Amino acid sequence: MPRYALIAEPDSHRATALLALATQEGLEGVVARDGAEAQEWVRQRGAPTLLVTDLALPRVDGFALLAWLRGRSDAGGMAVVVVTAFDELRVRAWQLKDALGIHALLSRRAGPEAMRDGVRRALAGQLAGGGLLESTAEEEKQRLARIDELKLVDPGPPDAQLQELVSEVAQAFGVPVALLTLVLGDRQWFKAHVGLTGSLARDRGTPRDWAFCHHVVQGREAMVVPDATRHPVFRDNPLVRDGIVGSYAGAPLITASGDVLGSLCVIDTRPLMLGPEDLAALRELAGRVAQSLEHTQASSRIRSPPRAGGQSEPVLTEASALALVREAVRALDVPVLVVAPGRKPYAANAALAELMGLPEERLSGMSFDSLCQHVANLSADPGGTLRQLDLAAEASRGLHLTLTLERPRPRVVRWVARPFVVPGGVAQLLSLMDLRVGSDVKGEREGLLRQDALTGLDTRRVGEERLSKEIGRCRREGLPFSLVLVDLVELGVLNRTRGFDAGDVALRELARRADGLCPPPGFAVRWTGDTFLLALPGADAVGAEAVRQLFHDVPGVPGRVSVAVTVQGEEDPHGTLSRAHAALARAKPDRTQDPGRD
């Protein structure tokens, strides 16, 4: 059996830490960011000596990955360490440990020593860890108290902006259902939803023990269930049995204080083939939504209610009242400014200072007119923006404006002015909320999914769409179609020996080269973390081989292996890709025999 460790972990930071543990045990390590990529590594290299995997992997979940591995004849001596955040998934895995060949089962909360001990025990063939629940009653009590404090459960109709948000999320992910849920004591409640019908839409919730989002809240992490109908934890869930949930992905709504309110999730009736980039995008959106919910609710109740029992509140002066507000806004992560009566900026927080490109103390010391002028100067039309910002600090109601700022970087923000009474007059609480949460969710989400941030190339999702269209077009026009797959087999070594910055530089240079070899209508795709795909409409096998050879003319590291494949007849695009992946897997062991594969 090849002496290597396979780390199946979507989070790159955690994967690096786990990789270091494997290296300490004398094993070469490779990382797969989802279950399908892990399967591909095994097809190429055989079953690993050590597998460290999460259970909630994108594309192919951890349970399915383990079952698949146990069906291989070369996996008999493989040591398996499972590390997951989700208590109930861990309990089920412990029940199935013999069938799945699990040696160590650890919580995300386990420290480095426990992780190291689990790896060593697994390699020695010993059991480590178990299926005990680790969530505490005190944490749950605090979480529910925070939901009550923010008064997020509203019996009225769903908020229009939140409804728009979930609609755009559903469209961006290409699923019929998207939910913004709050997980309460005995149920989950849909604060906003799209795609639900019948009693689910009418009741706006389900019992908590039906809720996939319950697991997200308990684990405090994003969770994906690619195929719930085959999942050992979820296949008997009533929502799955009734055909409502076939797959699920959700990310936690975590407040600035660290409490988990619920989840932003997407649901399909079919298997959900979201990749790790999709899950990261969903996690980022959920974080912004939680921040927006917390800020909106907190700032709308800036005055304290009367005490129970008729006790009078302590008498506040203007200075003491504003001081209390100042301490509150400094703890917020959204840009906020307190304006004292008489249009006097009083206190800003670090988030606003960053947005404005000014120190906090300067913001608090400038006049209100100077502040408005500075904001106007950040826009493309200072005069028009300044007219919009002619706010009356003594106004009886808040003012909402949408501003387009060009500096320090382009963004669209909502300027919200909310008045509140203090001794001596009316103050204002100004907040500038980034509209990437809300009306621009779809655009940002599409950007995250369609373009790789490091290389600027298309992502795999976009590549699959374009491949299908271009192969169809070439078939209609009687043209050949070829593709080249390039695997950067030494990228991991480069990252470990020279650092990830060096790896990023190499990836960007190779991406530039790949893009240059694919003139329109051809295109290059960052297929996985260390694999590029070059699509060559109109190129036959000879032309594709020439492009493959040219790609290897790029000097320097990392070393790479590549194959060229041409579409055969009426072959389905997925069939072409499968042939290409199989050819690449076959090429890797023999890379030193081909001078064109450096």
TrEMBL record:
It comes from the Bacteria. Keywords: Kinase, Phosphoprotein, Transferase. InterPro entries: CheY-like_superfamily, GAF, GAF-like_dom_sf, GGDEF_dom, Nucleotide_cyclase, PAS_4, Rev_trsase/Diguanyl_cyclase, Sig_transdc_resp-reg_receiver. Residues 587-598 have a biased composition (Basic and acidic residues). The modification 4-aspartylphosphate is found at D54. Residues 479-598 form the GGDEF domain. Pfam families: GAF, GGDEF, PAS_4, Response_reg. NCBIfam families: GGDEF. This is Diguanylate cyclase. The lineage of its organism: Bacteria, Pseudomonadati, Myxococcota, Myxococcia, Myxococcales.
